[in-house]
Amino acid sequence: MHNGNEILGWGMATFTWPAHQRGADVRVRLLADGTARVSCATQDIGTGTYTVFAEVVSDGSGIPVDKIDVVLGDSSLPPGPTSGGSAATASVVPAIAQATDKAMQAVLKAAPKAGNSPFSKADPKTLKFGQGRVYVGDKSPESGIRFEEILQANRLVGLDGQAKTNETEDQKKYSTHSFGGHFCEIAYDPQIVHLRVTRWLTVMDGGRMINEKTARNQIIGGVVMGIGMGLLEETVYDARNGKPVNNNYADYLVAVNADIPLIDVIFLDYPDKVMSEYGARGVGEIGLTGCASALTMATYHATGIRVRELPIRIEKLMSA
Q1: Can you list the residues of the chain whose pLDDT is less than 50?
Q2: How far is CA 25 from CA 70, 88, 183, in A?
Q3: Which helix (H) or strand (E) holds 3?
Q4: I need a surface site. Which of 36, 83, 99, 157 has the fewest CB within 10 A?
Q5: Which sign does the torsion angle of CA 245, 251, 257, 263 carry?
Q6: Catalytic residue among 149, 212, 285, 315
Q7: What distance in Å separates the CA atoms of residue 239 and residue 221, rounded to the nearest whole number?
Q8: Based on C-alpha coordinates, what's the Rg of the chain?
Q9: What residues does each domain of the chain span?
Q10: How does strand 36-40 pair with strand 24-31?
Q11: Tens digits of residue pLDDT in 187-220
């Protein structure tokens, strides 16, 4: 297929990345000022870990995200995983959910003890916690009392819940992976031996997406690196001493905005219950996996030439 002087080529490649889960301890505290504090010694390197913590606590308790304080990155906090191997989110989410539930259960146990409490004669097992309120199980959350009122009535500063992510029996029996496919279109102009990427689509199953926006940004970043890997990047070494010759951005080529087309990402958003009740698996490195293969497939479709060494050089395409 042609587009003016350019020949269009289509290529695709599949990819997979193991879904790791490491140990994580998380503490959730519900406070008498109506806020929540969730803490863990893990760190956020720009991948959205702060957001994930707040969203999981909010999802479990009904407390608005803007009233949840996330505290990370201090060794005095409960131990957490490193931010690597696409494992941080999958590791912390089960502990966050369980710690949130334990903190809510502590409030439910305190509810009948509060002075002048409408739950003074209630069995804590009949009470529920939702939308930041305590209410009787057969009624709506709106009929209940905000959790901070119960803490204040009991003269409590806060109540805690702490939990740890542990390997389950299912995880010992199954192999867990995130997986999907890259689909790309390139345009090749044989008159000037010029190749450019014009369209890109990535479709993947990464389990449940806790925050689709930050997950999509990670995949787009991986694809950008993959385009750089396939078309531009190469380290040249001095044969005499093994030192990199192009050890600077003047000589080492990386992808810039002009090299990158519109990138679309589709998540199947199918929870992996083997991983946890939330079903989240990691995304990150997987965005890069398979990109160069998709590019070389598209190049073959447009030129008829199999490129087996990266980057795809102009001289390899001269005979097309």
Answers
A1: none
A2: 14, 12, 39
A3: strand 2-3
A4: 157
A5: negative
A6: 285
A7: 33
A8: 26
A9: 2-19+177-317, 24-166
A10: antiparallel
A11: 999 999 999 999 999 999 999 999 999 999 999 9
- Say if CB 29 and CB 69 are below 8 A apart: no
Strands of the sheet with 133-136, listed across from one edge: 127-130, 133-136, 145-146
| pLDDT at position 120 | 79
pLDDT at 77: 95
285 tagged catalytic: yes
Asked if 289 and 16 touch (Cβ cutoff 8 Å), the reply is yes
CATH no., domain 2-19+177-317: 3.30.365.10
Characterize 243-282 residue by residue with b for buried, 16 or more Cβ atoms within 10 angstroms of its Cβ, and e for exposed: eeeeeeeeebeebeeeebbebebebeeeebebbbebbbbb
What amino acid is encoded at 305 in this protein? I
Domains 2-19+177-317 and 24-166 share a fold: yes
Among 202, 188, 227, CA closest to 13: 202
Which helix (H) or strand (E) segment holds residue 267: the answer is strand 263-267
Residue in 286, 290, 291, 269 with CA at minimum distance from that of residue 219: 286
Six-digit token string for 216 = 């999509």
CATH topology of domain 24-166: Aldehyde Oxidoreductase; domain 4 (3.30.365)
